[in-house]
Write a structure and sequence with these properties.
Trefoil (Acidic Fibroblast Growth Factor, subunit A); 9 domains; mainly beta; Immunoglobulin-like
């Protein structure tokens, strides 16, 4: 903890006294236990510093030797002589325990120095390690951080005391010293907002804390107190020392209730329709709150109690430019750590062509404008849902598109841009403003070409006010209405048949008739297999029961019980099915399996358990199926008829436990569950007499989030151009997505799911040959928290081919393998061939650092002329030609 004193020390005493014994104040109290070999004195000031030496002699600090050039120690034959000389100097020393320096008021600006073998006084320098002093518990005086101490051994000819790492330490004492008024932070309690502090003061005095909290000082000068009412972060506590009702000193101590700061980053999904994500870290267990510029809360998210990570999605403001937000954390409802973050949604959409109020003679309208790169664009008539044009903003922020045919009447066109983070902006443009406004006939829902599952879908659309709209189904009108405020709605008076229906929609606006064809396909509701008449675990009464449900159209449904007995069959002609079955009384109930076999596709199955209402059903109540467990002892509990024996085994046939249901119909047993990546599949059997009931549950190991990491290539490495598979590690079950974040492009590079063993691999992808990549990998954990890592990989840089061995003039021996090696472009192909016959002797590939090598037996006595070629992955090449490789004669 940081400590600040208002004065370097307490009041120095005028009297000069040399003491030869050992006396130090109490050691400092602090949050961490002090080093037992080096606990600094709390003595603040002294008239002299003296020490006892061997042979009855005495030493004194600050009595100048005649020829010592700043020497600050001297040896005397007797204590009396040392005392007289020290009194003549009349100086007061002060030891600063924070900076560990000793100053002397007789020599302002000078500090005691022990960097050599003797004591000196030098100009004070906070960076000079030789000016730092400590006073170990053995009563000695040593240079801080070293083993150099003032020793008792005989001094040199000039009478100077030695500083040595060997020898007997001299016993040092501050004469007429006064206790330093001081405090340390011993411990803090973040939840209670309190801190325990302790320190030293004049024995018998009183310490006042923050004006109103007293603390008594004992006879040894020690005191302690609990400071309450603290706030998160740094707190300055004021201390005052009173002696006999008079204030004699003051100090302050900084108490830090440290919390982890909140931080945040913004990420955008390549899919522009997905919201921006704010994520970061905060104090574990805190609540992170995001507010807009007005202080209105946007959203909040909990920080992980383990590592403090948090994330939340931000609803786009639907405005162009940066969206400023303020983020803070709540710790026990206390606000802390406000930071600002800007979410850059990018440019809003603008139309630059045509200009406002431009004329248009009819036909497609060419439009241009600006917007956010890679944003999606849709053009509609204002107030209408029908899309008459679409496109994307180019990477340079411009766009162009052509609408469908427009007539020469007035049109108000609305361009809608969906940019990153789902940020939607619009821009409108009017053409032919002076022309008559006529709203063309449109059908908005259901869309033409779509599929419906009902015979009478509700049709909606737009048209000219007052016009009559009719829908024709063949030669028959199935609905007519009038356009009101530009809108119309028709519910057909007769149903559509199965299959394709070509409908004719006609608008008659005072004799101006327009017609369009609207095609729909009606299909039976294609629903998966489901039992709608019963739910899993419900009870039944004996007698006739009707089973009903849904299934893919045309499926054959068969049901069997746990003994393999057929329970019923049906056909889902229109996507629904049913059959009747008499259910008899049984303590075991019925475990039913329904199988739907569709005309096309794989069979579907659904299982459910029915319990006989006349018997107490067997059940495992804790833990629940598909829950997680932590390593340790777990208690399994459940219900069954009294006297029922319950046994359990896991997937490896290991017994897990056994219990007998009591009179209350409950049972329980404990079992230690160890770590396993597969989790536990536990089968329970409940037996009473001839009745047997079974159930099973799965327990998964509680997943701990693992930060995503890339293992197939390291940051800063050179990649091999061509097909590459990016691999790494992460949280099992998490989703991993990679993008090329170079220059903010965020080009998708692949997506994968982390396997149960914690590894992942992206689909194979072509890299290079000459682009550098900033591969940003984002992992979304099953609990929706995220982690991100980035590896920057470099394309191979062409490097000239170099042969480092053998050297020019080297030869080979018969039957002895010779090693060729050198450097080239990383991953380049290096070939060695005959310069005469073009025969290739060896082809190798340079590694990621550009090194290549091979060994080969040559000869037996042939003299070679070799050409060595390299071909880099980007197509560049060079060669070493005419290398003479001759036989040595051996």
């Amino acid at each position: 903890m940081k400590k600040t004193l208002t004065r370097a020390g307490a009041i120095g005493l005028a009297a000069a006294t040399i003491l030869t014994g050992l006396s130090f104040g109490p050691a400092a109290a602090s949050a961490a236990a002090p080093d037992p070999s080096s606990t600094a004195t709390r003595l603040a000031a002294s008239s002299t510093i003296s020490m006892t030496l061997a042979g009855g002699k005495a030493g004194a600090v600050g009595t100048q030797a005649p020829n010592a050039y700043g020497n600050s120690s001297k040896v005397y034959d007797t204590v009396a002589l040392a005392e007289a000389d020290a009194r003549a100097v009349g100086a007061t020393y002060t030891y600063d325990p924070i900076n560990k320096v000793i100053t002397m008021d007789k020599f302002p600006g000078l500090c005691l120095y022990g960097g050599f073998s003797t004591l000196y006084q030098l100009r004070c320098n906070a960076n000079d390690a030789g000016q730092k002093w400590e006073f170990p518990r053995d009563g000695s005086m040593q240079v801080a951080g070293t083993d150099k101490k003032l020793t008792q051994e005989t001094p040199d000819a000039d009478g100077r005391l030695y500083l040595n790492s060997t020898g007997t330490p001299a016993k040092v004492r501050f004469a007429a010293a006064r206790e330093l008024f001081y405090a340390d932070v011993v411990s803090v309690d973040l939840a209670a907002r309190t801190a325990q502090i302790s320190g030293t003061a004049v024995p018998g005095s009183t310490v006042i804390i923050n004006d109103d909290q007293p603390a008594d000082v004992d006879g040894d000068g020690n005191w302690s107190a609990t400071v309450s009412g603290l706030t998160l972060g740094m707190n300055t506590t004021i201390l005052e020392q009173y002696e006999d009702g008079t204030k004699t000193d003051d100090a302050r101590v900084e108490i830090d209730l440290a919390v982890d700061p909140v931080d945040a980053t913004v990420t955008f999904d390549p899919d522009v329709t997905k919201k921006a994500v704010l994520s970061g870290s905060a104090h574990p267990g805190a609540t992170v709150v995001v507010e807009d510029a007005t202080g209105t809360e946007i959203d909040r998210a909990p920080a992980s109690p383990i590592d403090g990570t948090w994330s939340l999605e931000v609803t786009a403001p639907n405005l162009g430019g940066a969206y400023p937000v303020t983020i803070h954390q709540l710790i026990d409802h206390e606000r802390n750590g406000d930071i600002s973050q800007s979410i850059a949604y990018g440019a809003a959409v603008e139309v630059t062509r045509p200009v406002p109020d431009a004329a248009h003679d009819g036909g497609p309208l060419a439009m241009r404008g600006t917007g956010e790169p890679r944003a999606q664009l849709l053009v509609r008539e204002q107030g209408h849902a029908t899309v008459i044009g679409s496109g994307d903003v180019l990477v340079n922020g411009t766009w162009n598109l052509a609408t469908s045919d427009l007539d020469a009447r007035k049109h108000v066109l609305e361009v809608t841009q969906t940019g990153k983070g789902g940020n939607v902006t619009t821009s409108t443009i009017t053409i032919n403003p002076e022309a008559e406004t006529f709203k063309p006939l449109t059908v908005e829902t259901p869309e033409s070409g779509s599929t419906v599952t009902t015979s009478r879908p509700v049709f909606t659309g737009h048209g000219q006010d007052g016009a009559s709209v009719t829908i024709g189904y063949g030669a028959t009108a199935i609905g007519t209405t009038t356009v009101v405020d530009g809108d119309w709605t028709i519910t057909p008076t007769r149903g559509l048949g199965m299959g394709v229906s070509d409908l004719t929609v006609t608008q008659d606006a005072g004799g101006e008739v327009s017609t369009l064809t609207h095609t729909l396909t009606r299909v039976a509701a294609e629903l998966p297999l489901a039992v709608t008449s019963h739910v899993d675990g419900q009870t039944y009464a004996e007698g006739m029961t009707t089973f009903r449900g849904t299934a893919p159209v045309g499926s054959t449904i068969r049901a069997t019980n746990q003994w393999g007995t057929p329970m019923g069959t049906a056909t889902a002609t229109d996507g629904t099915w049913s059959f009747n079955r008499i259910l008899g009384p049984t303590a075991a109930g019925y475990d039913l399996t329904f199988t739907a076999t569709p005309p096309v596709g794989d069979p579907q199955t659904v299982s459910l358990k029915l319990n006989y209402a006349g018997a107490l059903g067997f059940e495992v109540t804790s833990p629940v199926n598909d829950s997680t467990y932590t390593v340790g002892t777990t208690t399994f509990t459940g219900t069954a008829m009294p006297g029922t024996v319950v046994t359990a085994t896991n997937q490896w046939s290991t017994p897990m436990g056994r219990a007998t249901a009591g009179l209350a119909g409950t049972w329980a047993f404990d079992r230690y569950l160890g770590p396993t990546s597969a989790g536990y599949d536990i089968a329970f059997v409940a037996a009473k007499g001839t009745d047997t009931q079974r159930t099973a549950l799965h327990l998964a190991t509680a997943v701990v989030n693992v930060p995503v990491d890339v293992t197939s290539i390291t940051d800063g490495a050179t990649y091999r151009p061509g097909l590459n598979v990016l691999t790494g590690t992460g949280t099992p079950g998490a989703t991993v997505e990679a993008v090329n974040a170079t220059n903010g492009w965020n080009v998708p590079m692949g997506r994968a799911t982390v396997k149960p063993d914690g590894t992942w691999a992206l689909p194979e992808r072509n890299w290079g040959p000459s682009n550098d990549y900033a591969v940003q990998v984002t992992q979304t954990n099953p609990d929706k928290t995220t982690s991100t890592t980035t590896v920057n990989v470099k394309a191979p840089v062409f490097a000239p081919l170099v042969l480092t061995s053998p050297a020019v003039g080297d030869t080979y021996d018969t039957g002895v393998a010779a090693r060729f090696e050198g450097t080239a472009t990383p991953f380049a192909t290096v070939s060695i061939r005959s310069a005469k016959s073009d025969t290739t002797y060896r082809t190798v590939e340079a590694d990621a650092d550009g090194h290549w090598s091979f060994t080969r037996v040559w000869g037996p006595t042939h003299d070679y002329v070799l050409n060595i070629d390299q071909k880099a992955r980007n197509g560049q090449s060079d060669s070493i030609t005419g290398f003479a490789w001759n036989h040595s004669g051996n």
